[in-house]
Amino acid sequence: MRPTESKERTSCSMAKKQHIFNHIWLDWLKTNIYWIICSQEEYKRRIKLEFGETCKLKKSVGGRFEVYTNGDRDIGVIWIKSPRDLRVVAHECFHAVHWILADRSIKLSYDSDEAFSYLLEHLIGEILKLNKK
Hints:
alpha+beta, disordered N terminus
């Protein structure tokens, strides 16, 4: 299970609204992952603008993975406060990987760990690569 395509999209029309999130399209899984590096307050503001929902963050943390719905699509959103903390990047990406694969009835086991590992490697790589731009 190797990634075939990913894209960065920093502004596009979705549900007739503009949003500013980085975007990773996992073509082989037909899944969208949005990610953003910003303050907690900015993250809450953008979630409200993009999805019309109040962000679930209640305390100061270094990152978060959440799933929001836009129309008939669920979209995973990774928020990271500081890109320098690779532990948080890996932690939040793992939540995203778990969500993506659990939706396909793939549970973490010795038989499936390579699928988890490749997807985790891909998400972390995309965030680090696109964050350098």
